Each structure stands twice: as C-alpha cells, then as structure tokens.
Request: fold
Amino acid sequence: MDRFRDSEALARFATDPASAYAAVRAASEALASPLSPEDTTPQSMEDASPTKWHLAHTTWFFETFVLEPRPGHRPFDPSFRVLFNSYYNTVGEQHPRPRRGLITRPSLAEVRAYRASVDERMAAVLAGAPTPEELAVIELGLHHEQQHQELMLTDLKHLFSSNPLKPVYHDAERPRIRAAKSGWLAWGGGERWIGHDGEGFAFDNEGPRHRLWLEGFELASRPVTNAEYLAFMADGGYDRPELWLSDGWATVQSEEWNAPLYWEDRDGEWWTLTLGGAEPLRPDDPVTHVSLYEADAYATWACARLPSEAEWECAAWRLPVEGNFVESGALHPSPSEHASDEHPVQMYGDVWEWTRSAYAPYPRYQPPEGAIGEYNGKFMSNQLVLRGGSCATPRSHVRETYRNFFYPHQRWQFTGIRLARDL
Amino acid sequence: MDRFRDSEALARFATDPASAYAAVRAASEALASPLSPEDTTPQSMEDASPTKWHLAHTTWFFETFVLEPRPGHRPFDPSFRVLFNSYYNTVGEQHPRPRRGLITRPSLAEVRAYRASVDERMAAVLAGAPTPEELAVIELGLHHEQQHQELMLTDLKHLFSSNPLKPVYHDAERPRIRAAKSGWLAWGGGERWIGHDGEGFAFDNEGPRHRLWLEGFELASRPVTNAEYLAFMADGGYDRPELWLSDGWATVQSEEWNAPLYWEDRDGEWWTLTLGGAEPLRPDDPVTHVSLYEADAYATWACARLPSEAEWECAAWRLPVEGNFVESGALHPSPSEHASDEHPVQMYGDVWEWTRSAYAPYPRYQPPEGAIGEYNGKFMSNQLVLRGGSCATPRSHVRETYRNFFYPHQRWQFTGIRLARDL
Amino acid sequence: MDRFRDSEALARFATDPASAYAAVRAASEALASPLSPEDTTPQSMEDASPTKWHLAHTTWFFETFVLEPRPGHRPFDPSFRVLFNSYYNTVGEQHPRPRRGLITRPSLAEVRAYRASVDERMAAVLAGAPTPEELAVIELGLHHEQQHQELMLTDLKHLFSSNPLKPVYHDAERPRIRAAKSGWLAWGGGERWIGHDGEGFAFDNEGPRHRLWLEGFELASRPVTNAEYLAFMADGGYDRPELWLSDGWATVQSEEWNAPLYWEDRDGEWWTLTLGGAEPLRPDDPVTHVSLYEADAYATWACARLPSEAEWECAAWRLPVEGNFVESGALHPSPSEHASDEHPVQMYGDVWEWTRSAYAPYPRYQPPEGAIGEYNGKFMSNQLVLRGGSCATPRSHVRETYRNFFYPHQRWQFTGIRLARDL
Amino acid sequence: MDRFRDSEALARFATDPASAYAAVRAASEALASPLSPEDTTPQSMEDASPTKWHLAHTTWFFETFVLEPRPGHRPFDPSFRVLFNSYYNTVGEQHPRPRRGLITRPSLAEVRAYRASVDERMAAVLAGAPTPEELAVIELGLHHEQQHQELMLTDLKHLFSSNPLKPVYHDAERPRIRAAKSGWLAWGGGERWIGHDGEGFAFDNEGPRHRLWLEGFELASRPVTNAEYLAFMADGGYDRPELWLSDGWATVQSEEWNAPLYWEDRDGEWWTLTLGGAEPLRPDDPVTHVSLYEADAYATWACARLPSEAEWECAAWRLPVEGNFVESGALHPSPSEHASDEHPVQMYGDVWEWTRSAYAPYPRYQPPEGAIGEYNGKFMSNQLVLRGGSCATPRSHVRETYRNFFYPHQRWQFTGIRLARDL
Reply:
C-alpha cells in the first residue's frame, strides 16, 4: 500500500502533470488492492458507494470531461456514460444512486481495464499539448479522485460494519500516545479576509476571497478526545434534550443514538471499529464518527460552541499542512505527539472538524459555466462546513481555505469536534 | 372581525400593559370567531396545528410562565400542562405533536373557558404590581401569541385546502391594482451593523447587534409577481434541474411539484386558494406559497439571487413598518399602489421574503436561562431566515431586525421572493 | 340511549319496512348523541372513520342507491356524491380515505340535516309502492347502517384512546360475574352444509349454501378470558417466536406489542380502556382487542388451534341468537351467567371470534351486478373470517351464517378467541 | 450446465442416497458456475437473496441439522451458524435478512470451500450407517436445496433486471412454437381426496390426505398466453378497478403497474427480460411474472376464475410429471407442442399456477417437533398456493400434491395463470 503514500503527488501537477496524474490514479488502485471483487460490489446505504463504482466514476470524469470533447473520441463503453455519472444533469441521465450496488457487471476486472484504457489515452493527451482549459479540468479531476479516495475508505468501513464478522481492511499498528491537556488559544477580533486568492488550485467554492468582521474568539488547542466525550455520555449527554438542537434531539430519538457511530458496548466496555478491525476504544484518540448534532450538543455541555469556518480559517492561517493523513497508513485518528502553547495542533488530518457555518456561497460566488458548475454550487443548502481533513484524506488535497460539507446527521466520515468560545 | 384590526395593540405595552394584553388576546379570539367547533379540531399535517390548540397553547404560555411560579397557583386543569406544551422539554413532557388533532376534548367551549380563566387571573397580575421579570415574560407571551395568530390563519388555510368543498374563511373584496414595473435599487458595500440594539422589545435571536462587512448589492424594488413566476414556469422552470439546488430538485421530483402550493390548473387556467375561497390567479399579486427551493430556482433563472438577511436588513433601515398586514383584512398578498425610484416597496407585509441566510446564532448570541431559552435557540439548524412579515402578520409584530425561519421545503406560510444581485 | 335498544328493529323489515327503517336510522343518531361536534370530526387512523362521516356515508348509501335512480331526483348537495362515497368505483371518485378527518364542513348539524332530508324522502318512497328491487336495496342499506353503527363505536374508542385525558363515552355499570370453567364440546365429522339458504336477508358473501366435509372437532365452551390470556403472557407469550406465525412475529417486533390493544401497565397492574373509561382489567372478561396473530399464538401455546368458519357454523347450528349485544348497553364483553355441558355459550355477542379461515368466495359465489357487487366480493383476499358478533353489534344484525372479515393484524374491533382442536 | 440436467437426481434417494446427494449438490454449483464473484454478492430486494448466500445456506442446513447433532462435531466456522440461518428461531439468532447482500466475506471461494468441507463430511455420514432420522433430514435437505436452486435463478434474474446493461445469464435458443387454442375440460363434482398419502417424500404441508367435497368445474386446457394477456391490457385491464380485488387495485396504483414484471415498452413494442437477455415478447409464450392480483383480474375479465388447489390437484391426478423444467435449459416458459382434448397440458413446468386457495393447514395438520417444524407451518397466513412447478424447478422436485406459496403481490417467480370456471 505504499503507492498511496506519495504525499506530494498533486503538488507536482504544475510542473509535471503526467507524473501527478499517474501518482493520483495509482493511489486509488493501491487503496482498492486489498479488496476482493465481492468487497467492491455492494452498497451499504444510499450515502455510500461501492469501491468498484468509485474506481469507475473517477475514470468516467476524465473520459467525459477531457476525452469526449476531443475529435474522434470513441467511448470505452457507451453505457458507462449513464452508469457512472454521479449527479451531472448537464451530462444527462444517471443510474439511480440507491442501485449502485446492484451493478455486478462490469466486473472489477473490467473496471480496471476501463481505468487502464482511459489512463493510456490520458497519457497521450498529457504527452501532447493539452490546452490550459484541459489542464484545468485534469487538475480538477485529480482533486476529484482524491475526494473519492477518502470516500472509498469511509464507504468501505460502513460496508464492513454491516458484516458481523467485522472484516479487516489492513493491519496497522497504531502507536499509543497520551493526549496533551487541552487549552484555549485566543485570537483578537477585527476585519479579516478569508477564502482562496487564486494562487494554485482551489475548488470554486473556496472563493472569492472576501472581507468579513470577526469578534475575538478562543479555540481549543486540540480536538475533543474519546475520554472527554465519554464524560459527556456519563453525564447523560444522550438523555438531556436541553443540550441538543431540536432537530438533533429528534434524530437521537428516531435513530436511537446513544454513542458515536461504530461504538459497541461489550459487557460494559466500549469497543469501536477501525479499518484494522474492532478494538477497545482508546480514550486518548480524538472522538470521531459524530454528527454535527452530537458535536453541537457536546459543545453546549462543555459550555463552549463550535467554531465558525471563518474563525477556523483565521486560526489555521500559515500553519503548515501537516498531520495524520492517509499517507500515514494509520487510517484512524490518533493523539498528537506535539503540543504547543502557541498554536493549535491537529488542525489538519485526524478528523474533519465540524463548524457551525452553513455551507453557502461566499459573496460574489458564481459557479462555473457548464457541467462542472454542478460540482459544488448546487449543494449549497442544508449542509454544514467541515475543515482540516482527516486520517483518510490525502495530504496534498487540503488547504487552509478548503471547505468540506456534509449534512448534520451524517456520521460515517471521520468527523470530529474542536471547541470554540467567545473571548 | 374588527377586533384584530388594532394595529397598535402591542405598541402600547410599555405604557399600558393591561390594555395591550387585552387587545392581543382579543385578536386571537376574533380570528377564531368565524370557525365552528369542527373547524378548530383537526390537524391537516404535522407542521400545522388545530385552531383550538393554538388558542389553548398561547394561554398555556401565560399560565405556565407567569401564573404557575406565583404562590398559591392552582392550575385550571393539571392535564393541560402536558397537553398544550408545544416543545418545552424543560417544562416536561408534551402530547405528541402529530396527534394534536385527535384531542376532541377539551371542547372549543372549554378552551374558551380556559382562556377566560387565565385572562381573569392575568388581569389581576397586571392590576397588581408585576415584577419587571414578569412584565418581560408577559410581553414575550404577547409576541408569542401574535406568532400563533399568523399560524392560525396559515394552518387553517392548509386544513381547508384538504376539503374538496374549498371552504371560505371570510369574504373580502380585494382591490385590483396593477403591479409597478420592477426595478433595481443599489446599496454600496462597507462595514455595517445589523441586529437589535436592545431598545424596545425584540426576540433573543435578533441580537446581539454586531458588525459585518457587506459587498455592494442591488435589491429588486418589489417582490416577484405571479405573472413573472408564470414566465419561469412557461420556460420549463420545474423541468430544468440546472436551475435548482440539488435538494430542491430532489424535492420537486419526490413531491411532484409543478407550481406553488394551492395552485390548481382548471382547464388551462391557473386558480389559487385564498382565505376567501378559490379564485383565478391574479397575475399582479406577489407570488406566494413558494419554498426556498422554488425561490432560489426562480432567482437563478432570472440571473439573480436571493438576498442575505444582512442585505435585507440594511435595505430596510429606517423604512416605516407599513404594508399589507393582517389588519388590512385582505389576508392575501396584493400589489402595492406605491412605487418609488428611491426605496423598495412592500418590504413589510404581503409575503415573508426568503433570504439565502441559514438561521444561525449571531456572534456572541446566548439563549436565555431556563425554559424560555428553548424559544428560539434550539431551532438554529436546517432552517433559513425570512424577513418582513406577511399579510397574516400583525403590524405591531415585525421590525427591521425580525428573523422568521422555516425549512427550505415548507410552503404553507405566505412566503415570497425578492431578488438581489451583486453590484 | 334507549333508542338503539330496539333489538328487533330489522326483524320487522319484511312486515313493516318503514318502521324498521326509522328504528335503524334512529339507532345511529342515538349512538352519536353523547358526542360533541369536535368528537365527530377527526380520524385517528386510516382504518377508522369519523362519526360524522359514518352518519353521512350511511345516508349517502340510501341517496345514491335508492333515491338517485328515481326520476326527478335532486341531490341534497352534489359534492356529497364524492365526499361520502367509501369505495364504490362504479359510482365514481372518492374523497381519499386518509383525509376523512379533515372535512370540517359540512358540520355535524349539516350532516344531521342531510340525514333528515334523506329520511323524509325515504319515508315517501316507503309510503309509496317501492319495487321489490328497491326494497332489497333498502334492506341492504339498513344492514349496512348497522355495520357502521358498530364501527362508530370502535372507531370512537380508538380516537378517544389517543387522548391522554381518556374521555368517557358513556357511564355504564357492568355487573361482576365469575367466568365459568372452560370445557370442550365435541362434534363428529362427516358431510355438512354451510352457508345461507336464501330464507330471509343475508349478505351475498354468506352463500351459496354448499356441502363440505368436516373432520370431527372440539370447541371450547366459552371464549378465552383475560386471566387465561395473562397466563400466556406470563409464560413469555410475546417473547417466544416459536408460538407465532412468521408474519405475526414480525408484527410483534415492528409494532412492539406486549399486550392486547388498549392495555396499559400502571405500576404492575394491567388497566384497560372501555367506552366507560379506563379501568383495572377484569380477569373474568373475555379477552378482546387481539389480532389474529395473537389469537393464533395463544391457541398454539394452549395446545389448541382456532376453529375454521365451517366448524364454527356447524357448532352454532340452531343456537338462539342471544348474548351481550349493543342493546345491552354494556359496550364491553363480559362473562356469561350461563354455562352448559350441552352447548357452547357466548357464541353470539361479546367478541367477534377469529377463525383460521381465509375470507374467500364460497363455491359458485358470484357478486351481484353493478355497484352493489363491490360491497363484499372485492375484499376476498388477505383477510380472515370472524364469527358471532360482539358487544357493539346490533342483535338483529348477525346470523349463524354471518361472515365478518378483518386483516390479521387489526385489533381495534371487539375481537376475541375461541379455541378448537381435532377430535 | 449439463450437470443440473440430471432430472432423476432425487428419485434415486431411496436406493442410493449418496449419489442423490452428490447430484443435487452438484446441480447448485452448476447453476452458479456462469457467475462471477460480483454476481453472487448483492441482494436486489428483501425478498431475494444473493447466490452466495443460497450456496452457503443450503450447506448450513446439512451442517446444522445432520452434522452438528453428531458427537465430536466441529463447525467449519462458528460464525456461519448465525450468518447463514434463514429463519429458524429454534436454532438461534439470524443475520438480518435485508443485509444478506452486504456480506462480502466469506468470499465465493470460501463458500465453495465450505460446501466442499460439508460435502466431504456428509459423504462419510452417508457411507457409514445413517439412522432413519438422519436419512429423513438429508432427504429433506436435498428437496430444500432444490427449492433454493429455483430461487437462485429467480433472484438472479431480479438482480440482473436492476442493471441497465441487462446482463445475460446463459445463451439458449428457445424453439418457436405456436400455442394451441385453449379449450375447457370438465370434471364432475363429488367427494374427493387430496393431499399426500405418505408414500415417498413429501413436505409436511402436503398432508394429511383428507376428504373434501368438490362442485363440478372446468379447467382451461393450457395456461394463459402473452397474446391473451395483451388483449386484457388492450381492453384497459390496468385501468378498470371493477376487475380487481380491492388490495390488488391499491397495489396497481401504489406500484404504478401497467404490465407484468420485466415487461418494457420500447417504442410501442413490448420486450421482456429472460435469463438469456432482453427480447421481444413472444405472444405464444405463457404469460409469467404476474401477481395473484393480476391473475385474478385477468380471470375476472375473462369471465372465469382461478382454480382452487383442490380442483388443480384433482385435475392433475395421474398426469405424468413432465414438462418444461429446469433440466430443459430453456429457463423460460414456452408453448407446448402437445395439445389434447382429453387432458390439460403444461400442468407441470413452465409457470407456477396461482390458485385462489389461501395457504392454510390441511385438516389435522401438525408441524413436526423441533426446528424443522419451522420449515412450513409458520408461513400459513397471508399467502396463496401455487401448483405445478415452473421452468426453473427441478423435475424431481414437484408432485401432484406439491404446495408452493407466495404473497399475492409477488411477481419475481415464474408465476402464471390457468383459468377455471364453475360447471
């Protein structure tokens, strides 16, 4: 699985796009390599997709948006245009999302052949003289593929969780580290700028860079740990409606939540599922697989709140993009060995940090023309922004301005909690 | 029905709270007066409540939060504490919301007796020396009752719409006015303040007043009309996914929407339901009973967008709170006789204007202690802010800073559309 | 409420149809007389209907099938033809069943006026020279109205059960009687005839009379009591899948059943709901409000089975139609004062007895031509036959050959259990 | 695929159980042999199961009921006891049925190893001196495996139908034959015996043999064809509620049925899905993939009715068990080359023929003691009996007394229609 440990893969795109392309594409295949054809086929819930589908859809992206517009294009298989279209209405019809797991054919081997065929043609494009527009779409396609690499892992984890045998994806020794004591770090208020300035790659939703006014705030020095979350639970966290958003409390009751996703009470001891199998819960690990509702209730209980995305971005300003990313191979959040009175730790990697900010367009945001305009803009309702990447994110994928987004009830990503409060 | 036409009712609270109390309470009864016991009992959907329940719940508010804490209090009926509690977990259990329409007893007459009993005791409180804390809760209770007055009308309209006989709530001649041409009005950008400053009554969610940075923007001079919305429909509005938010498009398909709520195609002519009965759609009326999704899709089609709540509030600055409110007796949005190149019209009354702003806490917002803290704060997820009041809102109820909120799919309020765009 | 105690009402039809008509119609109104307009309006579940709807629909039957075909007919209100049509596709459209509770207008008073108007016109028909065909439909309409009288009571009970105040429909002292010990009574096998022979009124589904072969069997001398059912529960009845039909066990789990409908555990003591209010469960009463699934599981636990409808009918042969019917005014099943070694008791009245027989057409059954053909035949799938009538059935309504039918999961009727076993 | 063409497999059981065992087990593997690991994994609806699950569950049956009770038994994998238990509560817990498609591990190869291991141990049992009780369970297990062979084909067909590529399971030329004209054959009434007499193998639900009285009836000489069913459709069959059972009409509307399952209207021409791929509908083929509701509506339209199971069994008396079974390799119903004025054709094979008989216990039926008692008895509610086997049934599997059963809305089996009428 070393091939996906090329943490600089995408950083090379500007100078050597063919190498970047090859590295990112290889990383997807490396992630799928421990899996059997059976593992890559079913879909465990509507939110998740089969590995085989991810491998095909990321390929479809290049075929549809790079190869198809070129003269003389002949599709690998004309039926794939519908079958592996995720949600691009501009491209045309889509195979219904809830039925992605029923596509037993093409087989995994055929999907690999599809990848090889497109890769060969893409290599020719890159070896030729791609236009700047083509290069821009290719770069977008690689960032897109990285997003699906993360989903491959979280979707697979969800699938495996439905199997009482609790299959193991990989064997990984995770070091045992004590979590540092959490402290508060302060930032003054005033006029601030956030959003991407256009230097280097960013998704459209990260810009335009714009001004806003921030009040002074404090941020926790590190994410909330399992031990801290257990204290919330022991204090009746899941039984006290006054701690919850109204929609959150309704969800707790209808879903009968009493712990984060993948936690299991085995005779009074909490276990959790990792991609390395089920194991006793480690108290020092950052809590993960929590919904926005749980994150918000925890913050209320802790006399704090969640940060806004602007606060998070200001706090992350000029911090190096380092942390427990997919390249570490741990595939599970861990405590940091580093602690500091000067700056927050674990802002990147480990867990996506829920913010209280609705996923909405920045001032003067305009989605791009054409099908690519469907990439981000149409999802700007009902979701909330998360920041910083997780243990399943490729390191070269995130930035200070990166905006991830999920619905407040969703828990199958590596989501976690960083507290904030007013100064 | 003249009693609810006291448009200054609540404005008198500071100087004559007993009179304000009597006037607001009387307005609720006036609104219910055309209704039979049968009309006040059923519940047509989970979002709506029976008139009888509204009449009782608003009374419960005073009994629970003003009378109950007083020494020697004896409840009118101890079972009402649960039966008419809406969502205050701090107070205790609640009768399940979806079963509000199955409570045939107490009868309407008994609920009226309940109102009379509480009113009598409240009169004694007000004639005595209420504490400032009590006065604050009483004032809140009256604003609360006004909110339910609006819901009584919109919930009743929904109930009546389920009856093929299309019952008529009231007879009202609405004048026929031509809508003025819509224009654009511009506001420059810069640092701005929004939110309530604490002078006079406001809900907790309207504050604290705080600074933010606005980019320059334009706002339409008046709300979108039925004629304009019909043009969107004629241009395939409900069939073109590229115009819609992703969740909106999913809703269009699952709900099979092809027009605003209450519209009915009768042999090629559009009719709509009003509280005065079914009638042919008037092209000059502001479009109403649209969801946020429809408002957003319309705006996209019109090459514009919805305003943010800050933009709306800045545009409303110092405008008089005048318009087609409940006191006009029309109970339906109408074109304005006024037009202006200087300022927007119909900012108040007619239709609640959807904004693109998620309903979220303002910086440094803290919900109040105790049960009253559940009034607003716990709903700050998944909903969007609407501004300006409607034809069913009491005039003394709204303000420049007033934040109403609904889920993006909801349509049974008098909701409408005002366009905005970047400068 | 004495007017519905005319237990011979329908028996007079052959000799004095006008008097029979008046008596049956008056009984419906007597049943509704303790109810407020509010009580008669809502619908507590799709299976149930509002009292107001029952009063109107039974009237609609006469207007549609007797008055409408007559020359010069003018409908009371043309909209009622759709509004109060239950399921007659041959007549035309129907107001959707799940929305019967949203029809607040016509009011109860207007429905009573509708009844009066139709009754007046029906009196004229009966005073004239009705054709034999008309007389047949009128007689059917009166039996139909009696069915709805029973439903008025059971639907109201369900509605009242949704109100935490547990409203009381009537005050009735029920005598306390000890249940006799249950014994077994035997019938030999052989060729037998069942089904109605055409003498006197019967529904179409009771015929044709036909031969069948019965093996010898035994029947319990009386219905199962609450005390006996409690022994089943104490022995883990609701926790032992081996006692249940597969679909029954699935229902127990999805519905979280642990007792008959309307039973409530109050601090370790079982209470139940009656139309006279909540009361401690009486151990000697016949168990009621059980589904077919519960009846079958109880029988399996008791090393017995449910009777077939043919067995029941043979056992009922020549027994007088006597028992605890609606005319007793108890409106709840009770133990019988009578016991016998010779014949079963309580075959009629108290509780409808579940049989193991699917509701299916008898050999050579043909539904009548026209709309009346929809009365019974189209329901001959997925339901099971019950026999004997209940404490809510008019005495003149049932017969030895009478076939009632409900779905196996339904519990809101006065259903009960009589055991059978092979000889 | 020749190995499953051993149509005498089970007939040898009495004389050579080891050979019968090997042949039936080999047939399952032959049926799965054209499938990839991907094909055998997902579950396309709750009613269906993955091929991999079928292969494992049939093996679990022998391991659990034959090997496990033997001294010194060591399970192949202890977790399989729960994982591959279908519905035997007496054995213990079951993996939830709707999640059978999420079990990617064990892999198909591991399931084959499981089969080999159990087969090896079973061979030792059979080579030793199995007790009569063991032999009885082994014979039951082989009939059980044949039932799952049929389900493997119908479940796979359903899975493939969800794939827009319409995968092909096998290539088979089906001969083109003209359907004979349908005629009526008469049987007189009288006392008759049906049910299995205990000679040779039968499922418990086929007995006891018992007497009943039959009225004279006629049966159609052959099943209804596609051409005949198209006439029903052309005559508004799916739009005329008067033809349908009430529950059937509700299903037509909620499921939006307008043709049998797997039919597709391609530009005005009907196509259908076969296991050999999509093809234009052949008018002479027996109509298949119809629900009981459709069968009943068709019969009503044709002025006929469905037969009772007793009528069918009497008509099948002494007919040879011959027809288009799985061994023909067609895997689709076809017209018969044979026609006769003397006896009905295609009573066996081609399509399971819906009867109007509820699946209920025969008089004096008792389920066996222990877990095997769950095999049939607990399903005796809500389902209807089908007779005669289909093109996916092994020839040695059916008998004159064989009772298959499905819910009236189910369509994914090879179900069809044979008409009956009163004499």
In short: The longest strand of chain A covers residues 352-358. The domain at 184-422 of chain A is CATH 3.90.1580.10 (paralog of FGE (formylglycine-generating enzyme)). Chain A touches chain B through 36 residues (CB under 8 Å). Chain A has a mean pLDDT of 95.
